[in-house]
Design goal:
It is built from 27 helices and 34 strands. It is an alpha+beta fold and about 850 residues long. Helix 2 packs across helix 19, helix 19 (about 615-620) packs across helix 20 and helix 22 (about 695-715) runs antiparallel to helix 23 (about 720-735). The longest helix is centred in the C-terminal third of the chain and has 24 residues, at about 670-690. It binds one RNA strand of 87 nucleotides through helix 7, strand 11, strand 15, helix 11 and helix 20.
RNA sequence: GCGGGCGUGGUGGAAUUGGUAGACACGCCGGCUUUAGGUGCCGGUGCUCGUAAGAGCGUGGGGGUUCAAGUCCCUCCGCCCGCACCA
C-alpha cells in the first residue's frame, strides 16, 4: 500500500482538531443567545474537573474518554449537549512546590493548566472551551467569596472555637472528612487535636435533606449512597439527663436504647469531657484520673480504636442518678467513649451493649438484663453475651411499670415518661459534623472577612470583592497562615466604621471551590453575578456526572450541600446537582496500582504520540466495564490500533470502488448477511452506550462488523451491489466507532459519504434486518446439546419437534427410550426429555 | 465485626437476565504473502480421551430447585472496596 493511503493518526487527528477549533464546533449557546435551539432537549455531561499537576495521567484519560463518548453519542441523538472543562487549581501540591522552589504557585499551576489543556485538545475531547475556568483565577474565586458571604448572611457560615484536627506536616487544620483512620487524607501523617477558632459551614443543618433527597436522584451507584448514609450516620433515640447531686451537675447522654434505661449500671465520660477535671478534683482518684486523661490524649485515634483492645478506664469516685429508678450509679472515665459523638458521656447498659459489657467484665460491674425474648423465662434469662435484639419480639423486664412491654413500645413509653418530667426527650443524633473550611495555607481562596476592634467580625462588602490573594515572599507555614506575614495586606480598614482592622488570614478548603464550579460553567463569563438564573435553570441538573469513587463522600456531599443551600436562597431551582452519577474504576498496570514510586505509571502522552489519540481513547474504553478497573497492557493497545487500521483500510478500499446503493429488498447471500451484521452492530452499540455504558461491548460489536466485512469483501467487490454492502458496513462501522475514535471515524466517513459525522444523526437499526428468516436452533436431549438444525424462523413447534427427532445426534440418544417431555424455546432450542 | 462488590480459558473480559458458556481482544499454534525479519491476510485455540466421528468433564468448593443453572436458593472458601468502640 502506498504511503499516502497509510493510516497516519497524527495527520488525521491534527486535521479534524483544527476544524473543530476553527469552527468552534463544540460551543453551545445559552438560552437567549444567538444560535440557541429551544427545540432540542438539553443534556449536561460532566466529568469531575482535574487538579492540574504536571500532566494528565491515565485516570484522566479514562474519565474524559468515557464522558466524551457519551457527549458525542447524545449530540448525534438530537440532544443539545453542554460539555465544559475547568481546573481545580488551588491546593497544596503547588504550594508545597513553591516552598521548595520559591516560585509563585501560580506559575506552576498555570504551566500545568496549559499542559492539561494542550493534551485534552490533543485527545480531541469535544469541549466547549468558551466556558473554561480555573478556580484560582480572581474572576472565579470572587464568586466563591460571594457565596461564602451569602452563606454567612444565612447563618450557614460561622466562626467557632472547637477541637479540631491538625495535620503537623501540612500545617493546617482538616475537615473531619479529610481524616482517615486518624491520619491526614493527603499525606498520611497522624493528626493532632487542637482547640482553635475556625470557620465552619453548617452542613449538619442539611443532614436530613441530604438523606431524604437520595430519592430524588435518578441513578447513583448504591454503594456511594450507602457510604454517604453511613457518613451522615443518623440515629434516632433520646437524650436522657443523669444528675450528679454532689456537684449539682447535669449530664445529658444520647442513647438509641431508651428501652434499656433500667439496665444502666454505671456511667462513662470521655477523657476529653470538660467536666472530668472538676469531678475528680478532691477525690482519692484525682491523680489517677489526671494520668489516664493525659495518656489518652497522647494516644492516637488509631491506637484508641484498635480492634480487640482491652477496655481501660478509671473510676471517678462520683455517682449520677438514673432518672427512671433513682439508682445511684458510679462514674468512670474511659477512652471507649468518644467526645466527638453524642454528648461525650454515656449511660452504660452492659447486658445489652457489647462495649459496655466488656467494660463491666473488666471492672467487675453488675450486669442486669432488662430485655428478653418474648418467650424466654424472665427468671432464668441470663445469656453470657450481651443481648442486643430489640424488635417487637422482645419485651422489657426488670423495668418497673414498663416491664412486659414490647421493646419498641417500651422505648416510646419511657421517652414519654421522661419528657413529662423534663428528664429527657426524643432526639436525633448525627455522626456528621459541620464542615471546617479554614486552612492555614496560602494557595487558596481568601476568606472575605475583616476583624475590627470596634465592630467585631465584619464581612467584606460585595462590591469590594474579590479579596485578592496578595503576593508574598515566604510560603512556608509556621503554624499560622503564611498570609499573616503580608502585613500590608492584613492591615485594612473596617468596611463598617472605617477604623483600623485586620483581614482574616486563613484561606478556604479547596473543596469549597469545587462545590459550585458546575454552576459557573453555565455562565462562565458573567462578571456581574456568579451566574444568570435562566442559564442555570436551563442546564441544571447535571445529567451525567463521571468521576472516581474516591470522591464518594467529600466532594459529592459538599456539592450536594451547596446546591441545597443555594436552592434555599433562591439562586437555583434544583435540590440535587447530579441526577446521575457514574463512578469509573481505576486502571492498573500488570495487576498493580500505578504509582510514581513503583515506576509503573503510564503516560497517556507517549501512547497518543505513538498510536494516536483515537487508539488510546478506544483502548481505555475497551479495557472492560468502565465502572470496574482495567489492566493496561501494551499488547492490548496494539490490538486496538490494528482494528482501527483495518477500518481505515476498508474505508480507503470502498471509497475508490464503484458501489451501488443498498436496496434491502434485493439483497442476498453474503451481501445480505453483511448488511444484517451492520444493523445488528447498530442495535448492540446503541443499547450498550445508552443503557449500561458498557462501552467495551459496543466496541467489540464494531470489531465484529469490521471482521465480517473483511471476510466477505473480496467476493463482494465483484459486483456494485456487493461493494455497496461493504461500503454500507464500513460507513456504519465508522459511524459507530465515532464516540471513541472521532478523528478516524470522521476521516473514513467523509471519504465514503462526503459528510461530517457530527452532523449526521446516530444510525438506527432497521427492525426488518434484525430479524432473520432462517435461524439455527440447538437441539438437546435431557438438557445436553446434541446438535443444531437450520430452520425457518417462523416454523411451527410441531415441525420443529419433528425435525429435532430426526436429527442424527438426537436419534442416537433417544432410540430405545421414551420421550416424556418436549420443550421448545422459540428462537433458541428444543429439548427432549427421554427416559 | 458490620455493609457492599467480585470469583468464568494462559490473560483482560462476553453471555439478550433461567435457554448453544467462553463474544471481542491479547497471547499462543498453523497456513498464505514477503528475498528475509516485521507488517498484512486466512484458519485454529477451555480441559481430558480419541486418527476421526464422537464422548466425558467444565463458570471458587459442596449441596439443592428445574426439562434446563455462570445466572435462582442454602452453605463453605478466597479476593477487593468502604465503615469500624458512633452509645
Amino acid at each position: 500500500m502506498s504511503d499516502e493511503r497509510r493510516y497516519d493518526p497524527a495527520a488525521v487527528e491534527a486535521r479534524w482538531q483544527r476544524i473543530w477549533e476553527e469552527e468552534r464546533t463544540w460551543e453551545v449557546p445559552n438560552p437567549g443567545q444567538p444560535g440557541f435551539d429551544p427545540s432540542k432537549p438539553k443534556s449536561y455531561v460532566l466529568e469531575m474537573l482535574p487538579y492540574p499537576s504536571g500532566e494528565p495521567h491515565v485516570g484522566h484519560l479514562k474519565n474524559y474518554a468515557i464522558g466524551d463518548a457519551v457527549a458525542h453519542f447524545r449530540r448525534r441523538n438530537g440532544l443539545q449537549v453542554i460539555h465544559p472543562m475547568g481546573y481545580d487549581a488551588f491546593g497544596l501540591p503547588a504550594e508545597n512546590a513553591a516552598i521548595r522552589t520559591g516560585e509563585h504557585p501560580r506559575v506552576a499551576t498555570f504551566a500545568s493548566i496549559d499542559e492539561f489543556r494542550r493534551q485534552f485538545k490533543q485527545w480531541g475531547i469535544s469541549i466547549d472551551w468558551s466556558r473554561e475556568l480555573a478556580t484560582c483565577e480572581p474572576e472565579y474565586y470572587r464568586w466563591t467569596q460571594w457565596l461564602f458571604l451569602k452563606l454567612y448572611e444565612r447563618g450557614l457560615a460561622y466562626r467557632a472555637e472547637a477541637p479540631v484536627q491538625w495535620c503537623p506536616k501540612d500545617a493546617t487544620v482538616l475537615a473531619n472528612e479529610q481524616v482517615i483512620d486518624g491520619r491526614c487524607e493527603r499525606c498520611g501523617t497522624l493528626v493532632e487535636q487542637r482547640r482553635l477558632e475556625q470557620w465552619f459551614f453548617r452542613i449538619t443543618e442539611y443532614a436530613d435533606r441530604l438523606l431524604e433527597d437520595f430519592d430524588a436522584l435518578e441513578s447513583w451507584p448504591e454503594h456511594v449512597i450507602t457510604m454517604q448514609r453511613n457518613w451522615i450516620g443518623r440515629s434516632e433515640g433520646a437524650e436522657v439527663i443523669f444528675r450528679c447531686e454532689e456537684l449539682d451537675l447535669d449530664f445529658p447522654v444520647f442513647t438509641t436504647r431508651p428501652d434499656t434505661l433500667f439496665g444502666a449500671t454505671f456511667f462513662v465520660l470521655a477523657p476529653e469531657h470538660p467536666a472530668v477535671e472538676k469531678l475528680a478534683a478532691g477525690t482519692e482518684h484525682e491523680q489517677a484520673v489526671r494520668d489516664y486523661v493525659n495518656e489518652a490524649g497522647r494516644r492516637s485515634a488509631e491506637e484508641r480504636g484498635a480492634e480487640d483492645r482491652e477496655k481501660t478506664g478509671v473510676p471517678l469516685g462520683r455517682y449520677v442518678t438514673n432518672p427512671v429508678n433513682g439508682e445511684r450509679i458510679p462514674m468512670f472515665v474511659s477512652d471507649y467513649v468518644l467526645m466527638e459523638y453524642g454528648t461525650g458521656a454515656i449511660m452504660a447498659v452492659p447486658a445489652h451493649d457489647e462495649r459496655d459489657f466488656d467494660f463491666a467484665r473488666a471492672f467487675g460491674l453488675p450486669i442486669r438484663q432488662v430485655v428478653r425474648p418474648r418467650d424466654a423465662d424472665p427468671d432464668s434469662f441470663s445469656p453470657d453475651e450481651p443481648f442486643v435484639e430489640h424488635s417487637s419480639d422482645e419485651v422489657l423486664m426488670n423495668s418497673g411499670e414498663f416491664s412486659g412491654l414490647p421493646a419498641p413500645e417500651g422505648k416510646r413509653k419511657i421517652i414519654e415518661w421522661l419528657e413529662e418530667r423534663g428528664l429527657g426527650k426524643a432526639t436525633v443524633n448525627y455522626r456528621l459534623r459541620d464542615w471546617l473550611i479554614s486552612r492555614q495555607r496560602y494557595w487558596g481562596c481568601p476568606i472575605p472577612i475583616v476583624y475590627c476592634d470596634d465592630c467585631g467580625t465584619v464581612p467584606v462588602p460585595e462590591d469590594q470583592l474579590p479579596v485578592e490573594l496578595p503576593d508574598i515572599e515566604d510560603y512556608a507555614p509556621k503554624g499560622r497562615s503564611p498570609l499573616a506575614a503580608a502585613e500590608d495586606w492584613v492591615a485594612t480598614t473596617c468596611p463598617r466604621c472605617g477604623g483600623a482592622a485586620r483581614r482574616e488570614t486563613d484561606t478556604m478548603d479547596t473543596f469549597v471551590d469545587s462545590s459550585w464550579y458546575f454552576l459557573r460553567y453555565l455562565d462562565a463569563r458573567n462578571d456581574e453575578r456568579p451566574w444568570a438564573r435562566d442559564a442555570v435553570d436551563h442546564w441544571m441538573p447535571v445529567d451525567l456526572y463521571i468521576g472516581g469513587v474516591e470522591h464518594a463522600i467529600l466532594h459529592l456531599m459538599y456539592a450536594r450541600f451547596f446546591t441545597k443551600a443555594l436552592q434555599d436562597m433562591d439562586l437555583l431551582g434544583v435540590p440535587e446537582p447530579f441526577a446521575n452519577l457514574f463512578t469509573q474504576g481505576m486502571i492498573t498496570r500488570d495487576g498493580a496500582k500505578m504509582s510514581k514510586s513503583k515506576g509503573n505509571t503510564v503516560s497517556p502522552r507517549e501512547y497518543v504520540e505513538r498510536y494516536g489519540a483515537d487508539t488510546t481513547r478506544t483502548f481505555v474504553c475497551f479495557l472492560g466495564p468502565p465502572e470496574r478497573g482495567g489492566d493496561w497492557k501494551d499488547e492490548g493497545v496494539e490490538g486496538v490500533h490494528r482494528f482501527l487500521t483495518r477500518l481505515w483500510r476498508l474505508g480507503q478500499e470502498v471509497a475508490e470502488r464503484e458501489a451501488a446503493a443498498v436496496d434491502k429488498g434485493a439483497l442476498e447471500g453474503d451481501a445480505l448477511e453483511l448488511v444484517r451484521k451492520a444493523h445488528w452492530a447498530i442495535d448492540k452499540a446503541t443499547r450498550d452506550i445508552s443503557q449500561s455504558l458498557h462501552l467495551h461491548t459496543a466496541i467489540a460489536a464494531v470489531m465484529e462488523l469490521v471482521n465480517e466485512a473483511y471476510r466477505a469483501k473480496d467476493s463482494l467487490y465483484s459486483s456494485p451491489e456487493g461493494t455497496g454492502a461493504v461500503r454500507f458496513a464500513t460507513a456504519t462501522a465508522a459511524s459507530l466507532i465515532y464516540p471513541f475514535a472521532p478523528h478516524l471515524a470522521c476521516e473514513v466517513y467523509e471519504a465514503i459519504e462526503g459528510e461530517r459525522l457530527w452532523e449526521v444523526p446516530w444510525p438506527k437499526a432497521d427492525p426488518d434486518l434484525l430479524q432473520r428468516e432462517e435461524i439455527s436452533l440447538v437441539v438437546q436431549v435431557n438438557g445436553k446439546r446434541r446438535g443444531e438444525i437450520q430452520v425457518p424462523a417462523d416454523m411451527p413447534e410441531g415441525e420443529l419437534l419433528r425435525l429435532a427427532r430426526e436429527h442424527e445426534g438426537v436419534r442416537r440418544h433417544i432410540d430405545g427410550k421414551q420421550v416424556v417431555k418436549e420443550i421448545v424455546v422459540p428462537g433458541r432450542l428444543v429439548n427432549l426429555v427421554a427416559r
